[in-house]
């Protein structure tokens, strides 16, 4: 799969939720994790993050939304249950993305929502646990951007063939003389 992603949280207060989120990011191949104004010491998350994500991928901690720094070209995707958010099954994930989720008993701050390039929601009847929401978003990214065979038409049917990538001809940005 081409591209990269990071996963972060804003204002989160439960170390086990941070640990579960960061573990999911690590398991799905995340390139970095981040926390904005956390109400926990994010290094105390190892009870739920037995993969010790912060020792495997970069961990960035920001005091405020204004301090959030993402790589050039990286799109910020807020995960929030709002009326105008795109439902996750209809969302095309950016190749370079940073997903951010809000606190357990709250929402992403208006300042952070304003900064997001996209806002997505999981089409559920009510809010679900923040660590479960993060895992669902990353799973959706994997199945939409990964290379998997088409689903069978019927349960137990044959899985579609995975097509090999075909490289095109070499392209030159300037003409050779």
UniProtKB/TrEMBL annotation:
Q: Which Gene3D superfamilies match?
A: 3.40.1280.10
**MF (Gene Ontology):** RNA binding; RNA methyltransferase activity
Record key words, sorted: Methyltransferase, Transferase
- The answer to keyword Metal-binding applying to this record is no
Q: Alphabetically, which GO biological process terms does the record hold?
A: methylation; RNA processing
Q: Does the keyword Transferase apply?
A: yes
The UniProt record lists the tRNA/rRNA methyltransferase SpoU type domain at 9-139
InterPro entries hit by this protein:
Alpha/beta_knot_MTases, rRNA_Methyltransferase, SpoU_MeTrfase, tRNA_m1G_MTases_N
Would you tell me the protein name for this molecule? SpoU rRNA methylase family protein
Per the UniProt record, the source organism is Aestuariispira insulae
Q: Lineage, please? A: Bacteria, Pseudomonadati, Pseudomonadota, Alphaproteobacteria, Rhodospirillales
